[in-house]
Design a protein that fits this description.
Length: 438
């Protein structure tokens, strides 16, 4: 067995450069997911497509974004992080750029739904898990939290930019601009994103060369499917997945794509509504970090009870807050919703760890997939509600009621497994998944 190469020293550890370029890649991918919320009305006006049809494309995008996550790590294990991320950025750039040539609704579904959904899904949970697992030992939780927030926040911060471009030059330049943003990230990914610390002759940040280990052998895709097959036999999985499904429905599926058109229905300018969602993104960062701090100190079930319950009550009030201009009550809603946007992630992940042990990352991947399925159903359903009733009010009230259901599901999870059998049997899992969100 050959001796390990000497560890090089750097003024700035390369792990931070890898984290930085990952952050930029996630922001670039988020740009694509910001576009539909702004362009629903322009597409409806130009092509005459119903909101149900346009929302259907958004729904497919959201579903694939989640369902791709449990399998994307398999591609990274086989082909490397850099190749997968570069390929994903090219796919989403092609999907967004091709929309300017659309003449039929099926092309919207193919471009925005399938291509952008698969591409962005390859740079979500799996990318964060792999980068933090391979490159960090110290500060792993902090880095994974920041990168997770980058995806959620980036798509909201891009909204006002896309809205201004759309208002001044039309939706096609807005779509091409987001494609260009992703393409601009590709050179940085190819230059700075490396698969493993050993490629640069260093150890993981805060660790030793022994921490830079190869993934456990076996087929990661088969491991993910086996994890799902075992998890569905347990009650905690269904309660967690059910709550997270409602979480996705009440955030990514409803508020993100439909808040702007709903506000526009009440006479609010699109740029103003997009700015409000950008504020949600700003407060999302603080809310996520604070929620993680609370999760270390409080019962995660009680946190989820509070988060879902308060979210439901705020959605009940939202229809009365819309108007032609921004009032203090709407600002209060925006600030609260930003703090609560992905605050559910740390306690949900903590409960997955409690019940599923070493296999928690795989199970959490499927819980996250349920989140995106819920988002897809809400994105499509809200469009149907608007087409049928002429208003989004019923969608807001339905989401509010579901949030109360999620609160009940969360608090009904037993504090501890009733017996060792409740926890899934531990099997080897890919290192990228096993170290996710550590």
């Amino acid at each position: 067995m050959t001796a390990a190469p000497p560890v090089r020293t750097h003024r700035v550890h390369p792990a931070w450069w890898v984290a930085a370029v990952t952050f930029v890649a996630l922001i670039g991918a988020a740009a694509f997911r910001a576009v539909p919320g702004v362009l629903i009305d322009p597409l409806h006006e130009e092509f005459g497509w119903s909101l149900s049809t346009i929302s259907g494309a958004v729904a497919i995008n959201l579903a694939l974004y989640g369902l791709t996550a449990p399998f994307a790590a398999a591609l990274m294990d086989r082909f490397g992080i850099r190749r997968v991320v570069v390929s994903a950025l090219l796919v989403v750039a092609a999907g967004s750029g091709a929309t300017v040539f659309m003449t039929a609704s099926w092309q919207l579904i193919l471009c925005w739904g399938v291509l952008v959904g698969l591409g962005t899904g390859s740079m979500a949970l799996s990318l964060v898990a792999t980068v933090t697992g391979r490159w960090f030992v110290a500060r792993r939780g902090l880095v994974s939290g920041v990168l997770t927030a980058a995806g959620a926040t980036g798509q909201l911060v891009f909204l006002p930019v896309v809205a201004v471009v759309n208002e001044r030059w039309g939706w096609r330049p807005a779509a091409l601009g987001t494609a260009a943003a992703a393409l601009a990230v590709v050179p940085f990914v190819a230059w700075l994103l490396r698969d493993r610390p050993r490629d640069l002759g260093v150890a993981p940040y805060g660790g030793t060369p022994a921490d830079d280990v190869d993934p456990v052998g076996g087929n990661p895709a088969r491991t993910a499917l086996r994890g799902l097959a075992d998890a569905v036999r347990t009650r905690p999985f269904w309660l967690l997945a059910g709550g997270f499904l409602i979480c996705g429905a009440s955030t990514n599926g409803l508020v993100q794509p439909h808040f702007i058109p709903a506000a526009h229905d009440h006479g609010m300018p699109v740029t103003t509504a997009a700015g409000l969602l950008a504020v949600v993104g700003v407060f999302d960062v603080a809310g996520t970090i604070f929620s993680g701090w609370l999760t270390d100190r409080a019962d995660p079930r009680l946190l989820l009870l509070a988060y879902y319950g308060l979210r439901g009550m705020s959605l009940f009030l939202l229809p009365q807050l819309f108007g032609t201009d921004v009032q203090a009550s709407m600002i209060a809603f925006i600030v609260f919703y930003g703090l609560d946007w992905v605050a559910t992630v740390p306690p949900t992940l903590a409960l997955c760890r409690q019940y599923f042990g070493a296999r928690a990352p795989v199970v959490f991947g499927w819980v996250f997939a349920a989140h995106q399925v819920g988002a897809a159903l809400a994105a499509f359903g809200a469009g149907v509600v608007r087409d049928v009733t002429g208003s989004y009010d019923a969608a807001w009230y339905a989401a509010a009621a579901l949030c109360l259901v999620a609160a009940a599901l969360s608090i009904s999870i037993r504090k501890r497994p009733a017996s060792p059998a409740t926890t899934l049997p531990v099997e080897p899992v890919p290192a990228a998944a096993d170290q996710a969100h550590g």
